[in-house]
Amino acid sequence: MTEEMKPSESPRTLSSFWSLPNDVALNILARISRIHHPSLSLVSKCFKSILSSRELDVTRTLMDKTEKHIYLYLKFRRHTKPCWFALTPGPDQKLKQLPSFPYEHHPDSPTVVSSSSEIYLIGGLVNHRRSRRVFVLDCRCQKWRKLPEMRVPRGSYAAAGFIDGKLYVLGGRESSGEVYDPKSGTWEPYMMNIHKDVIAEEKILCRAVNHLGSSFLTWCDLGDKMGWRQVKGLEGLFPVPPDFVSVASQDGGRRLTVWWVSYQKEDDLVLVSEIEIWCAEISFQIRSREEVYGVVEWSKVLHAMNRSETGGVISLLSSAIVNM
Predict the structure, then answer these.
(1) What is the rounded end-to-end Cα distance, in angstroms, of the chain?
(2) Is-above-0.85 flag for pTM?
(3) Between residues 116 and 10, which one has the greater pLDDT?
(4) Half-sphere exposure of 240 (CA within 13 A, CB side)
(5) Boundaries of each F-box domain copy (predicted)?
(6) How far apart are CA 249 and CA 292, in angstroms?
(7) Is the model's pLDDT at 222 over the cut of 60?
(8) Candidate CATH numbers 2.30.30, 2.120.10, 3.40.1170, 1.10.8; the one for domain 68-323
(9) Which of 171, 212, 215, 230 could form a disulfide with 242 if both were Cys (CB 3.0 to 4.6 A apart)?
(10) Contact at 8 Å (CB) between 299 and 238?
């Protein structure tokens, strides 16, 4: 009898839940980790709708219930096509492959920056030529969209960051910069203003550079014309030879997440036994207009794979951390 009653109890339970005031229902659902959202979405169409709603995102942010989610653009073997993966949160982390990139030619070496629950791919190389294209991945629904193209094509080693709600892009083998206003949907040129003390307003951009077998971070003040300078205090942090990418946070360029791949070998042999994906979060201390020092806040292995999973070779092409 008990087993027969269970199906009829579910509608009454759901009806009782949805009889709650809307703000109370949102408050309850905002406390549930996104790990459980796929299962909850199967309960009813109402649950699926509210779990993907902007209102729930706003409520989670106001209640400080957002979680960090990691996205990686990986290539496992020399002849396979790279794919985007989400690293599921929780103790049993797994790589979950995302739907294929829907547009022609995923850019090589784009500049990647995250804002809230979205990941931006900026410029990069298409058929070995610099690109103006900008793509956005909405991590809530795992769907891509295109932004208006930049004014200038930009390749690798550009820097980008959101400052005061606008997207600033510098470099990419171009000396000029430009800024995107999401409200108007337009790009405008950005001229470096040597007379304005922008460092005091925390408006700096940082990027990672691999050059001649070494790895280092460089920074640029949006308010002067002194160009890119090396971040000090991080000597010996990165592996040799280098294999890492970086993503700037929203904190006015004051924080950066840096990623790299480490190959663990069996008894100092050439054969790789395990491949580790490392991540470090670095904060910056501005000591003068000419000196920025990096401080490693934390550094750890985010995911490890054995040789059979990867074929012995893995390339970490891009990465991002989003808050949802």
Answers:
(1) 42
(2) no
(3) 116
(4) 8
(5) 20-60
(6) 17
(7) yes
(8) 2.120.10
(9) 215
(10) no
